[in-house]
Amino acid sequence: MSTALVLIDFQNDYFPNGRMPLEKSAEVSSKALEVLQAFRSKQLPIIHVQHISTRPDAVHFLPCTKGVEFYPSLHPLKNEHTVKKHYPNGFKDTNLLNHLTKNHIQHLVFCGMMTHLCVEATVRAAYDFGFSCTVLHDACTGKNLEFSGMSIPSQTVHHAFLAALHPTYAQITSTKELLQRLATQKMATAI
Q1: At CA 110, angle to CA 105 and CA 111, rounded to 5?
Q2: What number of other Cβ atoms are within 10 A of residue 71's Cβ?
Q3: Which residues contact 1 (CB under 8 A, 6 or more apart)?
Q4: What is the DSSP letter of 102?
Q5: Which of 163, 86, 74, 81 is nearest to 120 (CA)?
Q6: Beta strand ranges found along the chain (DSSP E)
Q7: Looking at CB atoms within 10 Å, which of 32, 61, 139, 188 has the fewest?
Q8: Nearest-angstrom CA–CA distance, 172 and 142
């Protein structure tokens, strides 16, 4: 089973000094970088997803701004596929499905921002398209939400959405566990 790493929305606006900095963005990007380096060293497929806002009321990921650019440590290399999206779901109106199908990729490993929005929407769509999915829980993050006058802390949101994905839509694991599997070559065939 061919496996690809999918990095979702690791963009400057989600980091300190960005327009919407997220809790734990530095920690999460560090974990994602470990996985990215491992995939690069094994020459496994890597896909970077970039959100570009097109809504008139958008406040982040605005076209032609520093905030929309990939975070420097996770910037794609020339041989790594990039997907530009305008919706939370990385498959909607993009070339992602075509790229995965053309390259016979069947299993996707996800990390990114935000767990409750773009990561969750893309994982559910991937499952619906027949892909097996793994989400790296410590390489994803989100933000505090509010509903019905209640404030919901980002880590509660993060854990609730991961729990909703597991086990039907995705296996949830840590970067450490995934890197151990990758080191023993179990990853290239199945995870």
Answers
A1: 150
A2: 21
A3: 106, 107, 132, 189, 190
A4: H
A5: 163
A6: 2-8, 46-51, 81-85, 105-113, 132-141, 145-147, 150-152, 171-173
A7: 188
A8: 16
| Cα 30–chain centre separation | 13
Structural domains in the chain, CATH included, are: 2-183 (3.40.50.850)
Mean pLDDT (whole number) for 117-131: 99
Question: pLDDT tens-digit profile of 13-30?
Answer: 999 999 999 999 999 999
152 burial type by CB count under 10 A (0-12 exposed, 13-18 middle, 19+ buried):
middle
Residue with tokens 């905030």: 67
CB-count exposure of residue 35 (10 Å: 0-12, 13-18, 19+): buried
